[in-house]
């Protein structure tokens, strides 16, 4: 019997627990012995590795976060610690490792793969930022978008009651994906993301006209990368005379009951990862695109810059009153 392990690394997402459930059930179904690594790469270094069974994954499918914890491991950047990690995997006779994480985690996985023999690796893109090159979808994005949707819908209730402008800051690190999709699907008036240059003055006359015609509140969704929430809120007050408030959504975007779509994607990603390993893939990342899954080399994914789909960007450019 071959032993297979899984770990979660980098920012957690809602959908990791669903993936863990599928991992245990499908591994056992395929005649593999499943192991959990607790606390990501730190857990690999510290030998926090234990055999998992059905009862470990009972009742977790709906829960955000990850039952086996995640980490951002500074030590893992050093080869001596990665050697320790490899020795620990070998001490449990683990031949396969599945890594749930983002591009940073895949760089770590690549290093492990380069520095070990006899071990095979599969990466599953999991980040609410949805910013991994080569895949249209990363596990957890749908749940995060739904959390943001509920938040903006609630903010609209109070914004309209007080005739205010709300500047809502979405996560995404350097990527505007979360902010853009949220702005589009929430009917926001303004969307500012790093991928699209902006000039607040372009909004002025149009927003003034809208106010004369009866608009009495504004929703602006901005990416955390721009660090401009204060500036935008001040602009609404000074240039439009509209009282404004800022809401930084923060880490609520990382939690919450996993959506049906993310549960299904967790199921598919894990199935693909395990099938690929059993078919002999040594190190790959499972990517989703054009309605199907494919297995890509780590370097094709982890070292390339993610670009938002051009159709979405086109819609993003329509904010700003010039359409
Ligand atoms: N170049 C690298 N070499 C080895 N490990 C890395 C490298 N880059 C990132 N990692 C590991 O991956 C972890 C997760 O990366 P991080 O960028 O925080 O999250 P994400 O995987 O979501 O992008 C880091 O804390 C580190 O342990
Ligand atoms: O939880 P932390 O360490 O404060 O990190 C916050 C960052 O993590 C994220 O939520 C997710 O990023 P990763 O998936 O790349 O780790 C970013 O959107 C955000 O900028």
From TrEMBL:
Q: What is the uppermost EC class here? A: transferase
Where's it found, cell-wise? Cytoplasm
What reaction(s) does this enzyme catalyze? Answer: beta-D-fructose 6-phosphate + ATP = beta-D-fructose 1,6-bisphosphate + ADP + H(+)
Give the coiled coil ranges: none
Q: Which UniProt keywords apply?
A: Allosteric enzyme, ATP-binding, Cytoplasm, Glycolysis, Kinase, Magnesium, Metal-binding, Nucleotide-binding, Transferase
Residues that, per the record, bind Mg(2+) = 103
User: Pathway, according to UniProt?
Assistant: Carbohydrate degradation; glycolysis; D-glyceraldehyde 3-phosphate and glycerone phosphate from D-glucose: step 3/4
Residues binding ADP: 156, 187-189
Q: Does the keyword ATP-binding apply?
A: yes
Query: Which cofactors are named for this entry?
Result: Mg(2+)
Q: Which family does it belong to?
A: Belongs to the phosphofructokinase type A (PFKA) family. ATP-dependent PFK group I subfamily. Prokaryotic clade 'B1' sub-subfamily.
Quaternary structure, per UniProt, is: Homotetramer.
NCBIfam families, alphabetized:
PRK03202.1
Q: Which purpose does this protein serve, as stated in its record?
A: Catalyzes the phosphorylation of D-fructose 6-phosphate to fructose 1,6-bisphosphate by ATP, the first committing step of glycolysis.
Q: What is the name listed in the Swiss-Prot or TrEMBL entry for this protein?
A: ATP-dependent 6-phosphofructokinase
The upper taxonomy is: Bacteria, Pseudomonadati, Campylobacterota, Epsilonproteobacteria, Campylobacterales
């Amino acid at each position: 019997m071959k032993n297979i392990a899984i770990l979660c690394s980098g920012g957690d997402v809602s959908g990791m627990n669903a993936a863990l459930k599928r991992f245990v059930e499908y591994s056992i179904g395929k005649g593999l012995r499943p192991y959990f690594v607790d606390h990501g790469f730190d857990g690999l270094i510290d030998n926090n590795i234990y055999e998992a069974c059905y009862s470990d994954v009972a009742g977790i499918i709906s829960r955000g976060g990850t039952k086996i914890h995640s980490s951002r491991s500074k030590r893992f950047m050093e080869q001596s610690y990665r050697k320790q990690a490899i020795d620990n995997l070998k001490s449990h006779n683990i031949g396969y490792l599945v890594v749930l994480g983002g591009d940073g985690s895949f760089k770590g996985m690549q290093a492990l793969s380069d520095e070990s023999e006899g071990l095979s690796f599969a990466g599953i893109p999991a980040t609410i930022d949805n910013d991994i090159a080569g895949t249209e979808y990363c596990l957890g994005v749908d749940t995060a978008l739904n959390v943001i949707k509920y938040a903006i819908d609630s903010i609209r209730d109070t914004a309209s009651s007080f005739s205010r402008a709300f500047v809502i800051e979405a996560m995404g690190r350097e990527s505007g994906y979360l902010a853009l999709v949220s702005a589009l699907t929430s009917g926001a008036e303004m969307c500012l993301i790093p991928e699209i240059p902006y000039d607040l003055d372009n909004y002025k006359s149009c927003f003034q006209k809208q106010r004369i015609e009866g608009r009495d509140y504004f929703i602006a969704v901005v990416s955390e990368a721009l660090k401009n929430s204060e500036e935008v809120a001040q602009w609404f007050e000074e240039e439009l005379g509209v009282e404004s408030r800022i809401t930084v959504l923060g880490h609520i975007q990382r939690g919450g009951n996993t959506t049906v779509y993310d549960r299904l994607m967790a199921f598919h990603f894990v199935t693909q990862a395990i099938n690929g390993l059993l078919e002999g893939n040594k190190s790959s990342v499972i990517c989703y695109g054009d309605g199907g899954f494919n297995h890509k080399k780590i370097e094709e994914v982890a070292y390339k810059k993610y670009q938002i789909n051009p159709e979405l960007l086109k819609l993003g450019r329509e904010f700003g009153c010039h359409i």
